[in-house]
Amino acid sequence: MAVAMVTTAVRQTPTIDEPVYVGTAVVHVREHSLRYNPEHPPLGKLIIASGLVFAHPRLDPHFTGDQTALGRSVLYESGNDPWRVMLWARLPVIVLTLLFGLVVLSFARELAGRVGGLVALALYSLSPDIIANGSLATLDVPAVGFLLTSVWLVWRARRRPLLHLSLAGVALGAAVATKMSTLPGVPVLLILAVLSFWSFRRARHAGDLGPRARRRLAGLGVAVASGMGLLALAVVWVTYLVVDPQLRWTPPANLPAVHGLRGLVIDRLPFPRPYRDGMRIQFGLENATWGGFLFGRVYHGSLWYYLPAALLVKTPLGMLALWAAGGVAMAAVPRLRSATVHILLPPAVLLAAAMNGSRDLGVRYALFVPVFLAVAAAEVLALRQRWAHAAAAALVLCVAVSSLRAFPYYLPYSNEAFGGPSKTHLRLHDSNVDWGQDLGRLADRLDERYPHERVWLVYKGSGVPSYYGIEAADPRKAPPSEVHGLLVVSDTSVAKADGRLAALLEGSTPVDEVGHSITIYRRP
Prior knowledge:
It is a single chain. By secondary structure, this protein is mainly α. Helices cover 58% and strands 6% of the residues. The protein has a four-stranded mixed beta sheet with strand order 3-4-6-5. Strand 5 and strand 6 (518-523) form a beta hairpin. Helix 14 runs antiparallel to helix 17 (386-406). The longest helix has 45 residues, at 82-126. It is globular and about 85 Å long.
């Protein structure tokens, strides 16, 4: 997994979100300012900054502009080497992704033994979605990993509640301080904390408890969960204070107004003001109308079944089978039933929340599914049947073959039932396929196979084509009669093409593809 992620990180150009996080990370550390990217809390960007300190990126002291322009300035306009900066930004996330694999191993081993732990670790480390997102300087894997760590520690609190619930509170706070999409998991974790504490107390006091003892136990459970919640809250506050000890904050001029119950809840939450304003920005994004693409259909708005369908396409077939078998095993084996709520309830709640979102942009919004279900899948070993071990080994082998065949193009992965990575663009778009990651590969391909040819480019990404030696014009800004030669189009733009671009593509012949995310056409 380490080799796959580092290899991918070295070869990929910045994806759409990464420059914003990198630029903001530099400002967090250098200027101790919270003014950029308030829609995401600082911890994930501080993690990215822990690698950037070794790259020593220059920051234009006179820069003025928004967060998108900031990322472009840091990477391409301040004399920095974007390849070097991006590698150092991605390395801390890669390290964290590997460490979270050890959490998966430990969690599954406690439930299903050593072999079960290895099965879970294999599924985690071979998951194309985890490899793809774990090799980027983004927030998705760190947020999910911290949440999984918190759930694991809550489970362990059945034996030592004080220590493990304290650590679980810190991990939960880290998740919430990394990405706000983890907030629906907070009440779930607090309920699980109460259940774990009750389990601990009942194990120490065998026999039936009287009404007074039950009330006292309920009160203690709520008190312990409240303490865990306060620790999580403290982590969020500390994260903001690390960036700016004075917590200076000026709300953006275009801060969305949030009314009704949502607005009332935001006003009452005990988070720092920048965090609450970031929530307002997130609700503003949710209220916007986004475009989507699923199984060849272009649509406006969102589809409630988008994420399950995307997961079906982008998960190895052997992994899907093991997920289902693990769920059956957890229901069939009595000793595992108490763990079911810990392993399955958090991703179920988070998936339900994500399915109600308005942005159908990729399975990264449901990355908790392959992470948590890797642990669930290992429970098939708890059946203690020889056929179960043989079937699990065969399915893990299938997953390994499918994952290795995708190397090094993990971002556009889809399983064999849907044609593999080369066909993903026919069914999904955006960060499922084409997130701007192959601009450097495109430059190499044009130099090797199409030197000195006229190039027209429609690129969806944050990279600057001219930096990589690509001299191209936008065909949508020229009369169609002048567009001849190579027409290079990002696959997301192909999927959603209309108007002039659709007409240009209709008269073009595909001749090549780059990274399963960019198609090269020839126009006579």
